[in-house]
Amino acid sequence: MEFDMSRTSKPLLLAVTALIGAMLASGCATNTDAPQAGGPPEQANKPAPTSLPKKDSYVIGYSQANNAEPYRAQLNTQLEYYAKQEPNLKLLPIADAQQDSSRQVSQVQQFIQQKVDVLILSPNESEPLTPAVEQACKAGIAVIVLDRAVNTDCISAFIGGDNVAIGKSAGELATKLLPDGGNVVELRGITSNQPQIDRDKGFRDAIASNPKIKITKDQDAKWLKEEATKNMQQWLQSGEKIDLVFGQNDPMALGAYLAAAGANKADSIKFIGIDGLAIPDGGIRAVENGQLAGTFVYPTGAKESIDTVKQMIAGQPIEKKQVLPTTAITPQNAAEMYRKYDFSNR
Questions:
Q1: Which of 18, 74, 183, 277 lies deepest, with the highest CB count within 10 Å?
Q2: Are 241 and 139 in contact (CB under 8 A)?
Q3: E strand or H helix at 85, and its extent?
């Protein structure tokens, strides 16, 4: 049915016109003036804190990607040690994400709710943790990211090693161990982890100098010794000819060694790892004992994290990106390096 405007009274027509105008005005306000999700623009662009307000004490929350990895367990030990040296710092119980990114997001959000002064994070994966890190930054919490970067500049500092360079050093060692070429198998961490991507790139770039060196197999072993042992057993049982194993961390390299030893083939294969921990079952001791041909120290960044917090408290400038150097562990320097990096008596 059509609406006949000619039969409508003038007062009613004016009222309808006014109502429509108010509705249009309300709609425009909703689109342009109402607060948007995530807060006003100035909050979204708020820079990451580079200093901390003067207080008697500061609370630090730390979420670790996976306590089950020896490297990360050692990082925890060192962070607890260095934090205890500072009476004005309180490190909350370390949260273990157990290689679960959704769990780690929840841990970060809980630290935000607790209003910690500093959040230290070793991301399980970069992409899923990025929004949570941005939430912490927007809440005015200083964020220090260790080892694996996140996809935002809204952090106070990133601290970690140069994984491409370390992977390249491992590849250069492989070319020395296989001057006439050979078959290499690579045990990777987790495909989506940036350290895995970078170590793989550096290693492949380095071995490209010798076309006779071929990577015949590669497989994720999730940074774990047990997974690497299973993968290596399968390769050996299939008759794969293997001259060298590159484990992207020491536990995976040692897991492969155990599988080869069980098949009486360890003596004919070279093993290279990364981490270089000075612990009884770590990479430095394994080089010293002849199980690994070499490894490379991947610094934990624990001391540098606490040093950065101290600088922020003192109002001193901090480096936003802190790239830590590595040390090659060889049979010649393994005993000396074990003494240097041993943390058990501290």
A1: 277
A2: no
A3: none
Structure tokens at 71: 């490297």
Q: What is the pTM of this model?
A: 0.81
Q: Which two tokens stand for residue 76?
A: 């925890």
* Tokens describing residue 38: 């995530």
**How does strand 270-272 pair with strand 295-296?**
unpaired
Give the pLDDT of residue 32. 32
Query: What does pLDDT average to in each consecutive run of 10 residues of the chain (346 residues)?
Result: 40 41 38 36 68 97 96 96 97 97 98 98 95 96 95 96 97 98 97 90 98 98 96 97 98 98 97 97 97 97 98 97 96 96 85
pLDDT at residue 45, rounded to an integer: 62
Distances (CA, A) of 37 to 41, 44, 48: 10, 10, 20
The pLDDT of residue 193 is 83
Report how far apart, in Å, the C-alpha atoms of 68 and of each of 116, 224, 243, 251 are.
Answer: 25, 8, 29, 11
- Rounded CA gap, 288 and 284, in Å? 6
> pLDDT at position 43, please?
44
The reported pLDDT for the residue numbered 31 is 35
Calculate the CA 164 to chain-centre distance. 14
Phi/psi of residue 159, nearest 5 degrees: -130, 125
Token look-up 């000819």 returns 241
Q: Which two three-digit tokens encode residue 89?
A: 């710092």
Phi-psi region for residue 293, left (φ > 0), alpha (ψ -120 to 50) or beta?
alpha
Spell out the alpha helix ranges (H) of the chain: 10-32, 41-44, 70-84, 101-113, 126-138, 163-177, 194-207, 225-237, 250-262, 283-288, 302-314, 334-341
